[in-house]
Amino acid sequence: MLSPYRVIDLADDRGIFCGRVLADLGAEVVKVEPVAGDPARRIGPFFHDEPGVENSLFWQLYAANKKSLALDIASDTVREALRRLIASADFLIESFRPGYLDSLGLGYDDVRALNPTLVYVSITPFGQDGPYRDFAATDLTGSALSGFAYLTGDPDRPPLRVSVPQFWTLGGAAGAAGAMTAHAHRINTGRGQRVDVSCQQALTRTLSHAPQFWDMNEIILKRSGPFRPIGDGRNLRVNFECADGYVNYIQPGGATGGRAMAALCAWMDEHSEGHPLLSGTDFGAYGFGQLPDDVLDAMSETLEAFFRSRTKRHLSEEAIKRRVLLFPVNDPADVCSYPQLAARGFFRETEAPDGGTMTTLGPWVKSSERPLPLRRAPRLGEHTGEVLAGLGFSTDEIADLRVSGAAR
Amino acid sequence: MTEYSAKPFEGLRVLDFCWVVIGPMTTRYFSDFGAEVLRVESSLRPDVIRHGLPFAEGKPGVNRSGYWANYNSGKLGLGLNMADERARNLAFRLATEWADVVTENFTPGTMEKWGLGYDALRKHNPGLVMFSASMLGRGGPYDSQPGFGPVLTALSGHTNFTGWPDRVPVSPYGAYTDFLIPHIAFSAVCAALDHKRRTGQGQYLDLSQLEAALYFAGPPVLDYLANGRIQTRNGNHDPDMAPHAVYRCDGNDRWCAIACPTDAAWHALAQTIDRPDLADDATLATLDGRKQREAELDAAIEAWTITRSPDEAMQACQAVGVAAGAVRDCRDLFDDPQEAHRGHFVFMDHPEMGRYASDANCFQLSETAPDYRRSPLLGEHTEYVMRELLGMPESEYRALSDDGVFE
Fold this sequence. Notes:
The structure holds two protein chains of two kinds.
Chain A: E1 6-9, H1 16-24, E2 28-33, H2 57-62, E3 66-70, H3 79-87, E4 91-94, H4 100-103, H5 108-114, E5 119-124, H6 139-145, H7 167-189, E6 193-198, H8 199-204, H9 210-217, E7 227-229, E8 235-237, E9 239-242, E10 245-249, H10 254-270, H11 276-279, H12 293-308, H13 312-322, E11 326-328, H14 332-336, H15 339-343, E12 347-351, E13 357-361, E14 366-367, H16 384-390, H17 395-403
Parallel strand pairs in A: 1-2, 1-4, 2-3, 4-5, 5-6
Antiparallel strand pairs in A: 7-8, 9-10, 10-11, 12-13
Chain B: E1 13-16, H1 22-32, E2 36-41, H2 66-70, E3 76-79, H3 85-98, E4 101-104, H4 110-113, H5 118-122, E5 129-134, H6 149-156, H7 181-199, E6 203-208, H8 209-214, H9 219-227, E7 244-248, E8 255-259, H10 263-272, H11 276-279, H12 287-292, H13 294-305, H14 310-319, E9 323-326, H15 330-335, H16 337-341, E10 345-350, E11 354-359, E12 363-365, H17 382-389, H18 394-402
Parallel strand pairs in B: 1-2, 1-4, 2-3, 4-5, 5-6
Antiparallel strand pairs in B: 7-8, 8-9, 10-11
């Protein structure tokens, strides 16, 4: 879909997903990385647990579909190469601390002079200016400042982040949205512009209606463990222990909730493990969170006992048949054996770092026009020669750059 | 900001059957940046989050939900009772004569049942870009399984990765994956529009929310596939950083997150918390050494934070380059100086709700200002759409209206 466009991807592990999204959509994404390799290549775990610049699974996932141009952007000897590269590009993505690229003469104002149609995407924790501009940040501290952590966790323990970092991945995704908006503007006007992403804002936007609870009703929502708050200080249990892990069961309101709960009650009654109060309640008559206290208590107790003696696979397969709104809390192994993903052919084989094959995630959207590409992540400097030759550098000039140590 | 020029999506027409969050948040990008987005609804079966808390002044009403308003600003409200064949015919006309883009996130089969599936529409509108975001994608054994956003975090692994290792996992708040996917979903629709602009060719985009969500929890899945390891939640610990936790501060339920990604950061932190003995302890100079005594270090840090406000602790750490973040609750967010600097909360005036807060986009453009406008009332623009966009005579509009076609 984006095949006419070239993206210069200077982003490290903190903005890496942005280029992946554009590459998936068909753009030519040239990842410009240090000759020693991008920092993302050093993030474990590694393929077959063997550390090495080609073996990071994080890199394998988020650099797929990209090309690698190994070039030391801070070196004076690559200025001409960078100048031509930027002139050839439609998008540039970067995630350095604000001001760093300006110090190299690659700030937005410098680059715009060279290529006024370029869309220049900066992905940083807090944006290019403001009081936190120069704050150090990690996924954890970003989860705190965005409001995410306060809403997440058990009430009697500290606020939490997700153990798989979200802050940067979300910022990268938002960068792609900003890039496409600026691209639409460029089509109308012929002019490029700068996209300035704040990861803090991107994570704040995941807080659902919680900020509006404060704005409209002056209510500060709090973390509530495996429960969901349903108003008036009451909670609905949503995550339950089962025989070999956990399952998720959320009782929705209205007709959907009525059908789901009737089916669950019938199932429990078949095994004489139901509760007369539940079987006698018309759940469809209640909106979400409006169940009476005695029904909530009976649900909690009866469902906990029923789920605890059964496995997540048994529970979730029966739930599908009976149209009960119960789902497994998948761990990575469960994800890989989830029947729907297999039936859609989501998991795909690509070339592994050792030359064999490895299984990875398939495209995240299906197009009726043409399937999205899926090429393994590039080896360090794999496309250096190809990209530089395309910019008009001779074989000798490319060799000189390599000898100087500024390219690989 | 330099100067504002033409809105990026001015002239683009989006017929939006999306509901709840993931779809409306995706299409809000188009309304924020100048497209005409018709939000198709029915008062007989309103979008469930029109009944979603919170309500302005705590009073329920289909036009009073702050939750709904946040994802539908700037759209036009069109009421169509899709149970009526005449309504379905009008929707078909809008999709084939008016729309550039049709979007929906119903259970697969719903649009087809109404005669609005992609195959039916493209015969009459070959350049159409149609976007569907179902829970689990089309095809496959579970494609018609009912469900809703919050359960996707269970399927994608996010739930399993949120919580303490000795306890039941807790899930991120709300329909979490609904807020991740719109950024890339919108990007895909834009790419399809660019393809259409250059080739004249439309297309259908089928997004499985589960598959897209896995990109936000992907590395542990690859770890299992490559190495057979089953990673799990680990509280706030991080394999590559120590100390790395959220520490109790002075006050009721007040906290500050502090993280040391490098040995130098640890050294600076130890000095800041007035523990030169720890700063000079050679056994703590490496990550491995600090991991072995992480609980002890956490106690030492908390002994320092407990007498300080989250902001005092954060500022003291940041002054020496140590990553720290005050834990903001939702009231704090409105006062957070950086969110305020970025204009994160946009306040709009609404005829029923009065002034309400909406979230701004998380990127700013140097030459393009978003056009944030209030969310529509249910069916507010039905007459405009029928009369102006479809050229319907007033008498016909009145007759259909009296028959409940626009309910």
